[in-house]
Amino acid sequence: MSSKEINTTAALETAAPTWWIRPGLEVTDKRMKIAGYDAETIARENGTPLYVYDLTHIKEQVRRVQHVFSSTGIPFCMRFALKSVREPEILNMLRGLGAVHSPDGIGMDVCSPGEMALALKSGWDASEISYTGTNLSDADFREILQHPIQINVDLLSQLRRIGRLAPGRKVGIRINPRAGAARIYVPAGRSPDEEHKFGMYAGAKPTKFGIYAEQLDEAIDIAKKYDLKLNVAHFHICHQTLTADLPRLDNALAEAMKMVRHLIDAGCPIEEVNTGGGIGQAGRQGEVDLDLNAWAAILAKHIGPLGVTLASELGEFLVSRSGVLLSEVVTVEDRIGTEFIGLNVGWNTMSSRFIWGEWHDLLPCVNPLAPRPTKVTISGNINEAPDLFAEDYSFAHVREGDIVAIFNVGAYSLAVACWHCLRPPAPALFFKERKV
Question: Mind listing the pLDDT tens digit for each residue in 3-15?
Fold first, then answer.
């Protein structure tokens, strides 16, 4: 039953979302299972709040992308966006996926000297690491330039800076085609026309990222002045991109390729086109996962004729669904006609909703598919008014002490957790294999 079909004279009852169910995250006998283990039992035995990761899911996601890239028939290089999550258990698993530079292996993309150091410490050699950052200082460059990694800079100022510090070096540039397929969720209640806005990284409005078409000739002149070899063209034009957004991606790539061809025609030795990351998956009821084959085909259509390597640096797509955050209901209370459900976790632990506006469904771990008869506000334990996970949200009846799961938190949660109000970030539990 959809919300539009509800009889307004009856209870406001909606069906629980089911989009999240997949191998490794299932319901058996009305109990949620993560990697085959009972979610409530995990919480009771380990305490809450607690991140629970299914590492098998990450392996599956990596292999899916490698498979579709292989099917294009063009050379490809896949890297992991380290900023999305940096837990040793995940990095060790990724490092073990394949031999150096093999089709099964995965490199690293970093965006700070600290991330570069972590990638090297975790077993990646310099040839497997790319650096794509913004607003680098001389101190940043000096630290990075101690290692022969691929550096991609995104501003003319940065290109001049690296030219002065490392003349004659190979360097990539991030370009901005002024078009993209970035999907940004807006709060409930806003106009449907505002539901998705495009151009988060590259659109009509100037952003902090990338060199524009009007600046390419100046970039080429800077490179010539310092004998820099522009060997990579990088761009980031996606965010939560789904199948419905592929026509926008197609158009954005056409604009980007005009810029790449301009570089090639000017004699720049472009070896790789890096398409960044940002591809999406269903995150709420009614959404459809990205068609990976269609996505790869569009990339191949535009990049294949150039005779270069197709590269990507995915993070969220690989790890987001692998993580579930378990928390305890500590408050159930009517507040002037609105039911508040308070959790023992706050935005310091799971901040993606608050920083990027991402949507996260919440479900009780026992009987997660029960009807949701009540509109509630779900709040966290940080002493700040905006610490709300959901408002006017259909939810099942729960009691204090029940365990609630928050989905799609495997990326950009642990990585940006902080100690606000001296609330500690949540620990994490990793399942290397699924229980049969």
Answer: 333 333 234 579 9
